[in-house]
Amino acid sequence: MDRPPIEPIRTTRKLSFLDDQQLKALQEATFQILENTGVQFPSDKALDIFSEHGAIVDSETKIVKIPRDLVIKAMQNVPRYFTLGARNPDFDLKLQEGVSYFTNDGCGHNVVDFKTREKRASTKKDVGMAARINDYLSSMAFSWTMVSAQDCGLTSPLHEIDVTWRNNTKHYQSVTMMGEEICRYGLEMATVLRGSEEELRSRPPISLIVCTIAPLVQDKEAIEGALVFGEKGIPIVVMSMPTMGTTAPATYAGALAVGDAEVISATVLLQLANPGTPVFHSIFHAWADPRTAAYVGYSLDSRGRYAPVEMAHHWGMPSLGGAFGTEASEPDSWRSAAEIATDPLLVALAGAEIVTGIGLRDTYTTLYPESFILDDDIYHSARFSLLDMDVNPDTLAVDVIAAVKPGGHFLSQKHTRKNMRTSMVRGVNHQLNKSGKYRDPSEYARERVQWILDNHHPEPPDEDVQKEIDRILKAADKELKN
Amino acid sequence: MSEELYKRLMETVVIGEPEDAEQIAKEALEAKLDPLTCINKALMPGIQKVGELFSTGEYYLPELIIGADAMKAALEILEPALIGGQKRDVVGMVILGTVEGDLHEIGKTLVGTMLTANGFKVVDIGSNQSVEAFVKAIEEHGADIVGASALLTTTMLQQKKLVEALESAGLKKKVKIMVGGAPVTDRYAQEIGADGYAEDAISAVDIAFRLMDAPV
User: Fold this and answer.
1) Does A433 touch chain B (CB under 8 A)?
2) A356 and A290, same structural domain?
């Protein structure tokens, strides 16, 4: 069947939120934090690596202080551009200037059942459903774990890989893999899928995202999992989520400095262990409501939202930009659209190489399948906004304007016949019913989901490969669940 | 030979080539073909096909309008050549215009095209037309329906004047009155005593059929 190609946001335009002096000041703050305050790494493996390379390690507090020279030396090895492989080679993503590749949101734990409309815990089947919708949409350049396979227990991250590959042929970034064992099993599955370790390294079909714990703490399982990926040269995203007022200073710059120190400390570790490991830099900052301490992802003043993209580039790293993620709990309210409306536009103008994440509600926790389609529309609106406009004699149509004369109309013109079909691009808001009236966008979005689920069936892995993956899954279930 | 010409003439309407339509209509007359047969066997099926393609979503507005333009170009050659009492079959005769003080034409033009494509004969008297001009055209053409368009709240009052003028002239029962335009509503149409209101060109066709008491 026909499958739309991937349509990333491409633009030659750039928007700067920070000037050189501000970028230098932020970087300087990170140097000072790493050298004087340090970051806690509750992992003996990580502490050993730091010790071997001359960092100051306190084995009791597990806080590592990293001298400036060591940071600079390690950071020189981070690659700026690389390739994220896909099951389907047409969907391999070559990171490059001026191109932003988007994915869906993750990792939620609730699903509003598409048939019963009941809100319930997400399952492996839901992960497959989201992966299938992702595979069809041209806005989706790669896939993320949209919801978790809560029916699969401890090995759910591996089951999420399995069901994603059965339903999706794009690059997969796991949002849930943690710990050395799970990551080793995951990489074994990826090696089987790719055929060899060399292929796995050159076109990795999988990558990993790990989160830090603000302020200035690394998660043992996350860091040790990332080190396993680093051994094989597989890309890793290090994401920090500082919350202003609680886990970070209540100032933008201070929160970004905390987040940056967390990301850079993990990146330095990964480079010391395996120089050249591909790492994405990512900071999703938020606010704590000063009255309730509730997590607020979108304050009215969100001026620093995409500053982290520039900070990443200043370090010579690619960036994962945090977009979407509304706090609205409904699939289609004014709030759900208003909060995210400018996200894809701004993050692409900031130049983020990869961007998350379409489709969840309730602050990254709840999946309404139709939200996928509604957010996809907001994505394409941004993509079109940044496309170049054709200005040439044919599009200027001065001769046609002369033929119509003042007071006439253009509908009788062959030029109009040729161009009118494509000049208005129909989004979810402009779908017509049989009487020529605009339909309810959410109703259309639900129909669209149903159509994709009924008609889009991406080719699963080869039978032999799948058998081998099943074997690995069984072994993992047996070892890790007991 | 004649079948071939009918087919070519029909095609000019379906694919929307007004210049070719005019040329082939001339060729048909030179070949001594009956103009009424040309209309019934080529132009009417052609415009019906265009209407079908529009309603199935394959054609867009420009294809519809240019198809109607092609039919109009051929009719301008063929109609004057009709012999004796020959008359082409039409669903109804419609006078269309934009009211006095209002220069907005496009909505009314679209209604005209849609009605033409659905078998009505339409005389479009243009924009900024006085009540008197409407009445004169209705009488002159023996109209079944008059459609008056207004885009402004200030000019929609002219629609009311038109209804009143038709009543005074004793034409209110002979001609059905349709009104339209952005500020006009169904309620306003009823208040001023008009017979029909449509909010767009597609529903205007349904209303016109209903007013003619003809099947939609």
Assistant:
1) no
2) yes
